[in-house]
Predict the 3D structure of the following.
Amino acid sequence: MSSRDIALVLLVCVAWAGNFLTSAYALREVPPFLFTALRFIALGLPLVFWIKRPAPGQWPRLLSVCLCVGVLHFGLSFVALKMAGDLSSPAIVIQSYIPMTTLLAWVVLGEKFAWRTGLAIAISFGGVMVLGFDPLVLDDPLALGLMLVSALFLAIGTVLMKGLRGLDAYSMQGWTALIAVLPLLAISIALEPGAIPALASASWVAWVGVAYAAFISSLLGHGLYYVLVQKHPVAQVTPWLLLVPVMAVGLGIAFWGDRPGPRLYIGGAMVLGGVLGVALRALKKSRTMPLAKEI
């Protein structure tokens, strides 16, 4: 990639890493499902006039993608982030959606991968197990489990998304925002009683977190990512995104008080190493077989 595009992908990494920190601060005042709903309300407002309609017959798939990604992935990931009490482990574990996506594409779509990719996937999941024994994670192991479930729903949504046609990145974000808001508000009302009236006392920190998640992480970050993958193979951009959890760990140590132990570093290195292995194999395949499906 050119130096300009490298600068853009680094900006995407900074935007996404910062979302862990700003969201963690906001979640001190706003419960997770309501926070997710507010994020999508803010995101949907500027996009509602620009979204394109899906092709005929694709509404069921679009609804499934939006529910998996918008409601279940984002909702559960913010629940896990709030429960975890740290930024490091959630930022690393969520990356497991990449090997999960590869496995699901193999099972559902019949996409094949070589033994080296399988080994990278095994290393990645082994890293999650090692990471799970870190004292920082053992304080609330349920948070780790919820983040893995969140990553699974993101992987399911990603595989389903491959069948959608004619929707650009902003249309996809817009539809996700519009479709996810009502279910998220319903879940919040059921599981987070009194949360909506309590918004009146939320500080500027909470609203900055909502705005950052909507406009910096989603609108700017995903928008730039879409520009980059239009110019370069996805597999060429993906390895750069491994800087996101590294930056998030640094932000956690610098501003959140994280003190990761050796198991988190070792497990994190295994997770990210496995993800990198999957990405590099995909890049090699895209270069040698440009017409083949991505793994």
About this structure: The chain has 14 helices and no strands.
